Amino acid sequence: MRSEKGMSLIETAVALAILGIVAVAYLGGIGTSLKSTTIAKEQTTAQSLVISEVDYVKNYPYQYSASEYPVDPTLDIPLGWSVPSPVVGLVHATDDGIQKVTITAEYNGKEILSMVTYKVNR
Q1: Would the CA dihedral through 70, 74, 75, 81 be positive or negative?
Q2: Three-class SS of residue 61?
Q3: Per-10-residue mean pLDDT, the chain, length 122
Q4: Strand boundaries in 8-109, DSSP class E
Q5: How far apart (Å, rounded) are the C-alpha atoms in residues 12 and 8?
Q6: Which of 11, 47, 72, 91 is most buried as measured by Cβ atoms within 10 A of its Cβ?
């Protein structure tokens, strides 16, 4: 019979269109997955750097009227990353033994994570 000779051009085109749609969805999913993995890795690295610096600042001797604290010289900072000197702000009008310290981690000049902690002179 003539109807059983093979696929028509329309059937082939429809099959290719469906295959194309599936391929685009699959590649889009892979792209999204790679982007979310990169963001998670950046956040994890930034959090590790900031928490290490918080520990260093908290153990560093209290300095009255300081504008910043030094960065931990033993901190292993990966390539492309930076941890600027922690910035000190006053909680009250004068430095009465409580300081607000802001610590930031940057990747390629872009701020990834910033954390605020308080340092108390005890």
Answers
A1: positive
A2: coil
A3: 69 93 94 95 97 96 94 96 95 91 96 96 84
A4: 81-82, 87-90, 98-107
A5: 6
A6: 72
